[in-house]
Write the structure tokens for this entry.
Amino acid sequence: MPTLNVNGKQVNVDVEPEMPLLWVLRDELGLTGTKYGCGIALCGACTVHLDGQPVRSCVIPVSAAAGKKVTTIEGLSKDGSHPVQRAWVQLQVPQCGYCQSGMIMAAAALLKEKKKPTDADIAAAVTNICRCGTYPRVRDAIHLAARSA
Ligand code: FES
Ligand code: FES
């Protein structure tokens, strides 16, 4: 029974240790902001932070998250006021929205590492796939968040 720290709260989950973290977050804890896309670490829809690093939770066994801090989109800020979230709203980034929580988590992790990322930094760090093609607005919103952080 792994004990996890999710969005600042300790939680016990009664699951097999090899269950993917994404399954635990969505199905056991009801944190459905994190999405399932490909299941094979390609699309980034399932991106969360593990001790501040962006990870693809569809391929992380829950046992690997025990003792680490998991942050999901629900825990990024209390009220949607994280600079990345504010920039997303200001530039109306999403289309269908499905990929967007993963995009925001990837962007937030990048800005923690690099206060003023270049276009190349963004392309290297935010490799999430968006079927709607929001990439130009994602890039603009990351620059806006960097300016306003
Ligand atoms: S669902 Fe995890 S990377 Fe696509
Ligand atoms: S906004 Fe639709 S998949 Fe990204």
Summary: The pocket of FE2/S2 (inorganic) cluster (ligand 1) is lined by residues 36-39, 41-46, 56, 58 (CB under 6 Å). The longest strand covers residues 3-6.
